[in-house]
Amino acid sequence: MTSKEEIISNIKFNYTKVRNEIIEKAQREYRNPGEITLIAVSKTFSTEILEYALESGIRIFGENYAQEVRDKIAFFEDKPVKPHWHFIGHLQTNKVKYLIPYIKLIHTVDSFELASEINKRAEQYNLIQNILIQVNTSSEETKYGILPEDAINLSQSVLSLHNLNLIGLMTIGTFSTDESVIREEFSMLRNLRYEVNNKLGIEKLTELSMGMSNDYLIAIEEGSTILRVGTAIFGERNYSKT
Ligand SMILES: *Cc1c(COP(=O)(O)O)cnc(C)c1O
After folding, report:
1. What is the mean pLDDT of the chain?
2. Domains within the chain, CATH numbers bracketed
3. What global pTM score does this model have?
C-alpha cells in the first residue's frame, strides 16, 4: 500500500513536471504559457485520488464517462473545495442530463442532435453552456467526432442555439510513434478553426483542445490552448471502470 502522503507527493511531482515542460515549450514557441490550460484527466480514478489531487493544488479535471462524473460531482457537492469539471468523453444524448449544470466545458459535441439536447438542458437552468466541437482529424473510422468538411455547417447551426457558447474545436491525435502523423492532425485542427471563424465571419472560436500525455508538446507547437493529460499526472489507469 502506498500512503496518502506518497500519493500526494507523486501527483504533485508529476503535475509540476508537466506544467514546467508546458511553460518551457510555450516560451520556446514564443507563446504565452498563460493561454494554455492544463486539464488533469482523472477518469477511472477514485474520489479519494481526486481529493489528493485537489490537495496537490490541481483544480481542473477531465472526465470521460457521464455516470462516473455524475457520481464524482455528487461526492464533492458538500465539500469546501470542488473540482472544475470538463467533459471529454463521447457523450450520448440521454446522458446529457447528468452533466448540466456542472460542467465548465463539454469538449465532445459531434452532432446537431447532441448540441440541441445540451442547449435544451442549459435553457432549463438558465445558463450558457460552453462547448467545443469534436473533429475526427484522422481517417480512422472508429473514432468519434465529425469530419473536417462538416465543421463549418455544424458550427453554423450550433450558433443558432442560444444557450450554447461555441468556443473552439477538439481532436484526439492518432496513437502513433510517427510524430508527423500527429502533427498533421493538430495542424489540420488549427487551420479548421481559422476557416470556421473566417467563413462564418466570427472570432469566437479561440480554443483548440488537443494534446494528451504522449503528444502534448507537439500540440503546443501546433497551437493547442487546452491540454488533456491523464497518465503523465496520475500514472497508468486501471481500466476496470466502475
Ligand atoms: C483518456 C483521455 C485523455 C488522457 O489520456 P492520457 O494518455 O492518459 O494523457 C485525453 N483526452 C481524452 C479524450 C481521453 O479520453
Report:
1. 96
2. 4-22+34-234 (3.20.20.10)
3. 0.97
